[in-house]
């Protein structure tokens, strides 16, 4: 089927739902560790509490990709039903997460939230490949990255913003501050509305041969596991090489999401989370000291969240530059990705020397890497796989995202950063080294069509 070139606004509409998805991911990535710490988690236990996120991605994304490849509704299309189901579940989970009364409940809500976000997110990657001709693929993924950057920046600043509007950062021991609760409620609303916007403004191409589509679907009804395993076993070399890059890239970013808050509140702001067992909570003076330290930690956590939001703003600017360039000219995806990841690695390494005033510059560099991670690997992959299997291939490709996160959560971060010492900031150094390794691994990519494609055909 010859696909029609789309205008900027048509691509914007089909990608707009990612604003809500990124609200969910940014609030989760920026503030779940803070919620865990507020509920009593020690910093060494935080990565394991995060294991819900990659485990659900490992299970959900290939399944949703497989199912969406085999879905067709004349009214709702192929991918949009999954956007909508995931949005409803994610919005409910986002609202409830900061109301968790205990650590195990917060960890359980993270499972639900991440699974729901993945139901919406995975088909969005496939939608770009479904809708756009080859010549607009890089452009489409870059526009998607632009919207993700907007969502990351706004959502990461929400607790700080609502605090500035007068909502309290203070709370008794073991209770999430109202500023965080309000921020997550706003995120839930934005998630649902932005997905609805894409669902109702975007159409999808039907299968080229509907009868053949239905026949293949019936024949494959009982072959789900074998089909997934078959596609894993027949991965193109380019996909495997991109998987190596993804492994080191996502090890770095999972390290940031899970440990940036304890690392930066402790090392940069000098306001670590107070440990209740260090205080005599039956003594009024100790209670006052605990409350003072906890309020200082909550306020510096707001500032860490705002600083993290800079990487969303930076990735947005990077994506905007790429969008203008790729709309008319071709790029060398391999070298763009290589350079971007190395810059991000330098940003992580610089955190060891950062002050509260210059921490934002570290996240500017990290944002360049993030903008590239969200576009270049997918653009390279989509040029080297069977378009009929785009959903399941994208789902399988995301295994290279979740496996490094599982390894990190099961002790990988604590082990590797422990080799450098017991300071929390060492985790950010490990993230920097990992991202630089990911950048250099781009030298493995040799498929010419994956590296560059003539975009103005």
Automatic annotation (TrEMBL):
Keywords (A to Z) from UniProt: Membrane, Transmembrane, Transmembrane helix, Transport
A single MF term (Gene Ontology): transmembrane transporter activity
A single Gene Ontology CC term: membrane
Keyword Cell membrane: no
TM segment ranges: 12-36, 48-68, 80-97, 103-121, 141-162, 182-200, 242-260, 303-323, 335-355, 361-380, 392-413, 425-445
UniProt-listed PANTHER family: SOLUTE CARRIER FAMILY 45 MEMBER 3 ISOFORM X1 (PTHR19432:SF35), SUGAR TRANSPORTER (PTHR19432)
Membrane-protein topology: Multi-pass membrane protein
Subcellular location: Membrane
Principal place of residence: membrane
Name the UniProt record assigns to this protein: MFS transporter
């Amino acid at each position: 089927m010859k696909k029609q070139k789309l205008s900027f606004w048509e691509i914007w509409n089909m990608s707009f739902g990612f604003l809500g998805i990124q609200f969910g991911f940014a609030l989760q990535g920026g503030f779940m560790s803070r919620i865990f710490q507020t509920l009593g988690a020690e910093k060494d236990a935080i990565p394991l509490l995060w294991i819900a996120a990659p485990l659900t991605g490992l299970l959900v994304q290939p399944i949703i990709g497989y199912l969406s490849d085999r879905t067709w509704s004349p009214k709702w299309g192929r991918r949009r039903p999954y956007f909508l189901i995931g949005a409803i579940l994610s919005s409910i989970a986002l609202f409830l997460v900061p109301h968790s009364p205990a650590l195990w409940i917060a960890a359980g809500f993270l499972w639900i939230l991440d699974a729901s976000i993945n139901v919406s997110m995975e088909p969005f990657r496939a939608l770009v490949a479904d809708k756009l001709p080859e010549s607009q693929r890089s452009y489409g993924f870059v526009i998607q990255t632009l919207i993700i950057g907007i969502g990351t920046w706004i959502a990461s600043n929400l607790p700080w913003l609502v605090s500035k509007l007068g909502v309290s950062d203070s709370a008794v021991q073991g209770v999430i501050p109202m500023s965080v609760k309000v921020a997550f409620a706003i995120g839930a609303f934005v998630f649902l509305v932005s997905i609805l916007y894409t669902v109702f403004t975007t159409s999808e191409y039907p299968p080229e041969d509907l009868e053949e589509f239905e026949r293949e679907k019936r024949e494959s009804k009982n072959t789900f596991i074998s089909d997934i395993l078959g596609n894993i076993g027949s991965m193109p070399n380019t996909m495997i090489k991109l998987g190596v890059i993804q492994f080191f890239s996502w090890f770095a970013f999972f390290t940031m999401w899970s440990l940036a808050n304890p690392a930066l509140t402790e090392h940069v702001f000098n306001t670590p989370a107070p440990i209740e067992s260090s205080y005599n909570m039956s003594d009024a003076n100790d209670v006052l000291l605990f409350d003072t330290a906890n309020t200082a930690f909550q306020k510096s956590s707001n500032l860490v969240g705002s600083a993290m939001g800079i990487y969303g703003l930076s990735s947005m600017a990077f994506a905007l530059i790429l969008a203008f360039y790729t709309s008319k000219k071709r790029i060398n995806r391999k070298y763009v990705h290589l350079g971007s990841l190395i810059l991000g690695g330098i940003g992580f390494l610089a955190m060891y020397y950062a002050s509260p005033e210059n921490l934002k510059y570290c996240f500017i560099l990290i944002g360049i890497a993030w903008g590239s991670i969200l576009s270049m690997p997918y653009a390279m992959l989509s040029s080297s796989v069977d378009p009929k299997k785009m959903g399941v291939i994208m789902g399988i490709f995301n295994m290279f995202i979740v496996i490094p996160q599982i390894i990190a959560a099961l002790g990988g971060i604590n082990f590797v950063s422990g080799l450098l010492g017991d300071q929390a900031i060492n985790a950010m150094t490990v993230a920097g080294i990992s991202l630089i390794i990911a950048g250099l691994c781009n030298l493995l990519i040799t498929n010419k069509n994956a590296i560059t494609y003539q975009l103005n055909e």
